Amino acid sequence: MDLAARAAGARTHFHKAMSEAFYVLSGELELFNGDTWVTGRTGDFLYVPPGGLHAFKNVTDEPTSMLMLFATGTA
What we know:
Structural class: mainly beta
Largest sheet: 4 strands, antiparallel
Low-confidence stretches: none
Protein name: Cupin 2
Pfam family, one: Cupin_2
Number of strands: 8
Domain Cupin type-2: 3-70
Helix content: under 10%
InterPro entries: Cupin_2, QDO-like, RmlC-like_jellyroll, RmlC_Cupin_sf
Order of helices and strands: EEEEEEEE
């Protein structure tokens, strides 16, 4: 998935029965982990467990490219 510069990705939400993970291919990704915003940079892997509140966005002036993985399971 690609996010343009200064693009909102997704508002705060959760997935009851699946995890979500992000592998940053290029650029930077801001991920809200339910408590604080963390920055993922090129080569970083960010994981959100089932039921975990999260949101993501690109706050930089450069595009962000990432792989997203969803895995089913129970919360």
